[in-house]
Amino acid sequence: MRPQYEPIYPLEHSSFKAFITVKGEFDYPFHYHPEFELIYILSSAGLRFVGNHFDNFFENDLVMLGADLPHCWKNSTQCNGTAFALVIQWNKDLLGADWMERKEFTGIKRLHNLSAKGIKFSLEISRQLRPLLISLINEPSSFQKIIKLVNILQQLSFSEDYNLICEETYSGNFNISDNDRLNKIYQHLQAHYKEKITLTDMASLVCMTEVSFCRFFSKLMKKSFFSFLNEYRINLACKMLIETDMQIGHICDQSGFGSVSFFYRQFKRFRNCSPLYYSNKFKNAGGYPIPKAPYE
Known about the structure:
globular
């Protein structure tokens, strides 16, 4: 996907932006901006795209993104109801130039550095911080607002219960030709993931030889094309395991895997468990209830 630049305009009496977005669906394009961003999903589920990585998201998803890291959230078609997300955006000079170089902010500086790869915090951390995040949104005082933001960042910096989203620091500095090719590749996968997809077809799609295509894709996405394709299909399979009662064999077919044994091997590779274990673990955890009043 080709990331679009999104300008973020500051509020009149605040050094950062904090708001709740309320939509029928998350329809923002794949975009980037120089501001850091903290996103807490109050209500919705679907696929989260960050840099060269994508994964399922559900209620209570809490992610911190570094400057210029492309991202977007896309709702599941099976997820009915309004989508709520709490969003906080700030620039690196939040408290003045070089504020993170001071000893008091060593942990927050480390957090900002890690966010270049995207940080996905645990469910326990997100639920723990939920009241403070909502309190920040409802806080009328600009002074107290920024104190609460620094407090949130400090608490996040203490936590070791997180995963980095991208394996490597992501660079979105593509030229126009690269962006157009990636758009064609992604659109083709969306339309044909259930079908057999060959290297010859993909290379022809972007007018390249197979060798050139493999080099091009690996250089930009930091993974091979078929690794990307299998990961994409496994994410779709996970959604079906959670949102439907389809048999695993049928999910295997619907997500584009021609072989059940290969599907199981890829599921183990990307989820480190079996499809049945993944489904049961999610259902036993109670699914993803939609909050009745996500901003209270």
